[in-house]
Amino acid sequence: MSDGESGWRALQTPSRPRPDVDAERKAAAKASPFNRLARVHALSAAGDAMVAVALAGSLFFSIDPSAARWRVGLYLALTVAPFALMSPLIGPALDRAKGGRRIMIVVLNLGRAISAMLMITNIDSLWLFPLAFAQLVFGKGYAISKAAIVPTTVRDEAELVEKNARLQVLSGVAGFIGAAPAGLASLIAGPGAAVFLATGVFAAAFVYSLQLPKTAVADEPDSPVEKAELRGGAIILSASAMGILRGIVGFFSFLVAFGFRGGTDDVDLSGTGTALGAALHQALGFTTNADAGLPAWQLGLVLGGSVVGMLVGSVIAPHARKITAEENILFGALLLCAAVGLLTAWTGGLLGAFVLALTVGATSSAGKLAFDSTVQRDAPDANYGRSFARFETRFQLIWVLGAIIPVVLTIPARLGFFGISCAAGFASISYLVSSRAARGGPVGPLRVEPPVRQPLGTDEPMDPTLVDAWLEDEPQVEERPASRRVVPVAPVAADDPTVVGPGPAATADTTSSWPVAADDPTITGDD
Fold it and tell me: At residue 441, does pLDDT exceed 70?
């Protein structure tokens, strides 16, 4: 310890090497594939919320409804084309290519950033409509690609439903986080400032998309077993129920978008395509929520209720799966949506719209998780990335079709709420009846067929595991009291290909005795 002068000397370097702190930090910073996807998804949800806030205070909802409806309806119809082509043509190619879905997510986020940037200078022009619906197409395409890539980012397929639930919760939280600064920026500097923030967020999502894993979703085409499992009764019924819920989401979104818009005088019920809505409006005496000068914050409140409902459904559904079956969750979601829709059609107003938004968000979120769990349960041999992408494509198409209805027809809010109740009620009854009918059939997604019998004269050996099933399946010969006789059988050659298994050569004197009734009509010849 002492050096003779100062009495102290430096401590010796320890023999044990110091840990590599930098390496540990790099390892900790290296995110898992799922965490990389979660970052992209959070940025995507935040950007969508910012765009929605900007549109709420822009020309999109302040233009005269009669001038806006045909534009919105046209662009909604145009959004069907990309999804109709993506499923049968582009989808399989993207699934087989290594990193195909990753490339699609990168391109879509880049497109969202560019379209958001163009919206900054066109926030008060009619160019806002095509740019806004370009955002819609990019967002729907991202949802499909995200559904395909999630199964490739999990270690075990058993945690797939849990990871999807986490992504839904993350989406809702990120939406609130993104909407807050966008709303503040819109109040201070106008809706263009909110779109400016969205541009930066989508640009960040584009950068993080480059870090997604380069994996192929499906290396091989669908197998017969996979196709059969995905066509099982439970999956088909669950997909139909989920499609109704997704269509209700699209219908409700544009119903309240036109019902709670701001800065308009009233609704023009004389335009083309609105005759039915006008007749129902006058006959039933429903009132719209499109009062003059209706503040835009009411629309934000309703849409915020939908996001809260989505969070609630994402939290409740995983716990509900522990105590009940997935079919009961879907049935309960449809039934709850029908009941609340009927109640809000009676009450109406801003409170009714908020409650229904909360319900629609919760039921669609819980139903989606129940559907994912049903597919995972009844199709264990399916490629989940490919399967979920196909189902999500159909759900997005149904969303668009549901959204077109309140755009083409001028439907009062309360009448629309009643329509939601009718659709969900009919779907719940149909789902219940069909599920009970399906349970009366064979258990499981596949019908067990009897074993295939080995044909005589083939060179392939018989599967020994089928012998017992074959023998048990053979009908028993009934012993009948009758006279017996010996029927000669033609000699069999040693090289006869119809003989299964080796055997001694036959001779001309070879006969076989088999008990035959004397009055058997199938026997001919002399007695």
Answer: no
Kindly write down the DSSP assignment for every residue of 196-236, as one continuous string: HHHHHHHHHHHHHHTTS----S-SSPPPHHHHHHHTSHHHH
Chain mean position to CA 426: 22
Q: How far apart are CA 199 and CA 119, in angstroms?
A: 9
Helices within 150-190 (DSSP H only): 160-189
**DSSP structure class, residue 6:** S
Would you state the structure tokens that stand for residue 405, as one six-digit string?
């209805």
Take residue 391 and report the two structure tokens written for it: 């189902």
Q: State the SS3 of 15-62.
A: CCCCCCHHHHHHHHHCCCHHHHHHHHHHHHHHHHHHHHHHHHCCHHHH
For 168, 188, 362, the CA distances from 316, given in Å and listed in that order, are 12, 38, 9
pLDDT band at 416 (very low <50, low <70, confident <90, very high): very high
Decide: pTM greater than 0.90: no
Which one-letter amino acid corresponds to residue 443? V
456-475: average pLDDT: 44
Domains of the chain, start order: 31-439 (1.20.1250.20)
pLDDT over threshold 80, residue 114: yes
Neighbours of 273 (CB within 10 A): 13
Task: Quote the pLDDT of residue 419.
Answer: 95
